[in-house]
Amino acid sequence: MPANVLADTGRKARAAALLARGVPAANVGRQVGVTGRTVRRWLENPEYAEQVQELRRTALGETLRGLETVSRSAVHILGRVLADDGAPATVRVRAAIGVLSLLPRIAEHVELEERVALLEAATACRDEGGAS
């Protein structure tokens, strides 16, 4: 493979990683040695755009796993504060409000996960039925 093609492939990969982190195309271009217009043109390619989206999904998944881990500790700490009769009432009330305020968001997240799973299953069934 020619050196310029390899260089372009490396630039595109670095650009995809930067775009996935939310860096604007013009800044990405400067960092990888092309114009912002070139980066935007790369994004017009559906395969490249999907690569960037996949990198975003991967990064988001890693972030969510990290939040899931620390949220368990946070819930445990809030539970201890709530159970501590020696803690000031205002602290216990704020801890309770904090826990309760998360419930609707958690419930919404669980519902969305279930809905997405149902849609994916329906799509898979439809695709299998159409492929036969």
Summarize this, please?
The protein is mainly alpha-helical and 132 residues long.
SSE layout:
Layout: H1 3-20, H2 25-32, H3 36-43, H4 46-83, H5 89-131
Characterise the protein shown here.
- This protein has 132 residues and is mainly α.
- Helices cover 87% and strands 0% of the residues.
- It has 5 helices and no strands.
- The chain has helices spanning 3-20, 25-32, 36-43, 46-83, 89-131.
- The longest helix has 43 residues, at 89-131.
- It is flat, with a radius of gyration of 23 Å.
- The protein starts with a helix and ends with a helix.
Gyration radius over CA: 23 Å
Encode the helix/strand succession as letters: HHHHH
How many separate helices?
A: 5
User: What is the approximate shape?
Assistant: flat
Content of β-strand: under 5%
Residue-averaged pLDDT, rounded?
85
Q: Could you give the distance between the termini?
A: 40 Å
Share of residues in helices? over 70%
What is the SS-derived class? mainly alpha
Tally of strands: 0
**Sheet with most strands:** none
| Low-confidence segments | none
Features:
mainly alpha, single chain
